[in-house]
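FW: tagging you since you asked about this chain on Friday. Here's the raw sequence from the shared folder, copied in full. Didn't touch anything.
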Amino acid sequence: MSPLLKKVEKQGMTGILKKRNPAGVSVDDFFSDTELVRKEFSTLIKCEANRVVLVPSVSYGMANVMKNIKVTRFDNIVVTGEQFPSNYYPWHRLHHDTGVKLKIVSPLDTLNNRGKQWNQLILEAIDANTKLVALGNVHWADGTKFDLIAIRKRTREVGALLVIDGTQSVGALPFNVEQIQPDALVCGGYKWLMGPYSLGLAYYGEYFDSGKPVEENWINRLHSEDFAALVNYESEYQPGALRYEMGEHSNFILVPMLLEALKQINQWKPKAIQQYTAAITKKPIQLLKAAGFWVEDEKYRGHHLFGVRLPENKSIDEVKTSIRKNKISVSFRGNAIRVSPHVYNNEADLMKLVKAVTGNP
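HL: got it, structure written out here
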């Protein structure tokens, strides 16, 4: 979970005060900021703004996908091992309800060329019966990066959908919809998008243009901008992807916060964030490897998120105690220490981590 920028926090406070006297809220306010959010996010991921919708969570965004795909017990869905639950449970539900096979692709039990081999296993798992491949750009536990262009090429060969959970990467790692061409991309807003909790963004491609949303609300219906005509019930949805907007997506507190955060990210640019985090982690990672710790090859990880695995002579409990004692904020995912530097860090922060886990001055 990212910290809030001061100017993002300020927008939230302004939104709270606005609700104190709702007489100042106009009809336009229900749509103006959300349109700007769409524009900023479309700039970030290189897509058309009308393909971007606001969602409360990744699970909500994935539920829209789940509702609009048809599978049978003869088909299969490919996911990566131990990926984030919100991008696993929807496909597990389909497996339970329809009998569709769930192919869970885990890495080989070796750290040698781990990322390269894992990517190859994913490609090999996709076959003529695959209807959907659902994964992240990077793995949430240890930052392993997946070759989405190669995976997209393979899914096209067999006619499968590609659905990406971008929560662990979009905002800090460049993502180009025009280049990757996913069928759907869903992002929680509270991580690398630097926004508030309980608000995220989703991109839906042409496959979903005539689908049915999980939610029947007034604001995703055609002509919902005309408040006076809301009593005239409308059977048609907003065109294309806009039908998947969450109810009450006009949130006057969270939307301005996310908008401000997106503006800043577009100023920083994910490419520059990667360059900065690469610079501040280069020496610390070299020192960790020299001390016997394992970090994925640079080609198969992002610089903003990577896993550190311990040598056999190190106790995970001992390392956790040292990290807590030194007041260092990292996460533990399985047997990996997940490190997630950003522009608010410097090399000295990473060197402090190196000292804490290795015990070397």
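FW: The radius of gyration is 22 Å.
HL: agreed, and Residues 6-268 form a domain with the Aspartate Aminotransferase; domain 2 fold (CATH 3.40.640.10).
FW: great, closing this out.
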